[in-house]
User: What shape does this take?
Amino acid sequence: MKLYRKILLLLAFLATTLASNAQEQQVAEADSATAKFKNVKISLLTCGAYDEVWALYGHSALRIEMPDSGEDIVANWGLFDFQQPNFIGRFLFGKCDYLMGMVPFEQFLVEFASKGSSVFQQEIDLTPEEKGGVLRALYLNSLPENCMYRYNFIYDNCATRPRDIIFNNIPEKVVYNNQIDSTVTFRDIIHANNEQKPWCRLGIDMVIGVNADKPTSRADQEFLPNNMQRDFANAMFVDSAGNKRAVVRSSQWILKGAPVYKREFPLTPGACGCVLMVIIAAVTVFERLRKKNFWILDTVLLTISGIVGIILFLMIFSEHPTVSFNLLILTFNPLLLVFLWRITKELKRKKSPIISRAFFCLVLLSVFMTNKDVIPFGLQNAPEGYFEVCIALLIRLMRTFDKKLWNGKKDKC
Assistant: This one.
C-alpha cells in the first residue's frame, strides 16, 4: 500500500502541475511541466492468453515509465476481488465489479511470465501536454471512489479501458489506415480464442444468443486485446489542421511465451453429441423391435433439458451482453419441468402427450433457427454438438407418433 500511495502521490503532483498549465500567468510552471512530461513514456501492453478460463482472450494494460523519478508502473483494469459478497452469483449475472489498480511493472511482468504468456508493448506517440492529460485521468481513475467499475466482457473491459483513457483525453481525433472484416461476429471472435478449450467454448456458446451472431464494428471488435493491438498499429492522430502522426511511436516484444494448455476431456462436445445420438437411435430401434416402453429414458432427457432451460431463462436477467435472447431455449425449455409429471404419466400409459408433440415442433424450429450460416432465415448459430442432441430428442419424441407401438398396453421399462 505504501508503494501505491507513493505512486498516487506522484501522479497527483503531475496532475496538479498540469492544471497550472491552463493558467496563462504561470508560463514558467507550464514550461516546467512540459519538461517533466517530455521523458514520460505511456505504452499499451497486450498480453497473450494462458491456461485459465478468464485468460483465454488475453489482457491489456497501460505502462507508465517515468525515467526522471525512476518509476515504472502499470495501470491494470483487470483486478477483481473474490471476497465480494456473492461473487459467483454476481459474476453469472454480469454484476461483477472489477478494479483499476497500479502495480510495479516488474511484478506485472513476472505474473505473466509464470503463466507462459507473452507481452507486447506499443509506445503511444503523445505530446507532453497530452501525456499530462492522460496521467491526470489515470490519477482520477485510481482514486478509491473511482477505481471500481461494472465489468462488461464486450463493451467495458480491460482492453477498452486503456483505449478510452487515452483517446478521451487528447484533442486530436483518431483515424485508421486498415480495413476490418465487418461480417465477423462476436461468436467468431470468441471462437478464434478458445479453440484449445472446446468444453469452455461449449459453455460460452450455450449462454450467448442471437446478438452474438450479428456483424461487428471496429469498436465492437476491440473488446479483444489482440484486435486493440492491431488497430493501434494502424491508427493515426489527426489534429485540427489536418496534420497526421502515427499513434504508435515504437513497438517491441517485452516477453515471448508459449502457454501450455491442460488437456480437457478426450472427447469433444461434437463427438459426445454423436455418441448420444447413436445410443438413443439404437435404444429406440431395440425398443420398437421388442415392443418395450423406455419411458424413464424420456423422463431423464426431458428433465436435463428443462434444467438447462432454467439456466438459459435466468440469463435473460443477466447484465452480460448478448445473452438475453437465446433461441436454444426452444430446445432446452424450462417449461418441460412444469409439465414433466403429466408427460411422464402419459408416457407410462403409452399415450401420446400433446405437450410432447408441441415440444417436437419447438425442437425442429430451433434446428432451423440456430443454423444461421446455412439457412437464410436463421438468427443464431448453435454450439458444437447441439444438432446431434436435437436429433436424439426428436427421435424419442417421434416414437410417440407411432400408433402401432402405442397400443394402450402398459409395459415396464
